[in-house]
Amino acid sequence: MRHVVSILIENEAGALSRVVGLFSQRGYNIESLTVAPTDDPTLSRCTILTLGDEEVIEQITKQLHKLVCVLRVSAINDEPEGGMERELVLIKVPTPNRNVREDVKSLADIYGAKIIDVSAEILTLQYVGSSQEVDNFCSTVVKLADVLEVVRSGVLGVAKGNHYLHN
What is the pLDDT of residue 26? Predict the structure, then answer.
């Protein structure tokens, strides 16, 4: 089962390395990793997508709590009201002729994607959705046109309702 784990860590050198090292030492795989500073410049929020059963996630969260640089840990899937997740993808496709260009524009409209860069023969699309929605969008684009480049942000997650990760 897939789990999104949010971690509030100190924004200092080596903190992320210790978190990732914990996963590595215990043989847990990280499917997706996203890290950025919060509104407090001394803290960063780390969002990790990993696979495992409830016992594995419980073990991961317990071990993360033991790290000095970790302030809070939350398994988004375990929150009472559940969680929301989003992922960003940028896709660069060649549009060698008018027909392909129009097809790509139509697809972007259907999915609610944005065209963020236009050149004579290349369009760059931006799409935001759940991981599954991003997978579906990417597979549809591949069927429509050649893909030159795909860049995915990794999963971001937040609990629904009144639950939030704070210091």
Answer: 87
Q: Partners of 92 in the beta sheet?
A: 124, 149
The pLDDT of residue 83: 84
What is the separation, in whole angstroms, between the first and last Cα of the chain? 28
Q: Which of 10, 143, 17, 134 is nearest to 70 (CA)?
A: 10
> Taking CA 126 as the corner, what is the angle to CA 125 and CA 130, rounded to the nearest 5 degrees?
130
Helices of type H across 69-115 = 98-111
In this predicted structure, the answer to whether residue 163 has a pLDDT above a threshold of 90 is no
**Rounded CA separation 65/130 (Å):** 28
DSSP 76: G
Whose CA is closest to 103, among 152, 151, 150, 142? 142
Strands 43-51 vs 149-152: parallel, antiparallel or unpaired: unpaired
DSSP structural state of residue 80: T
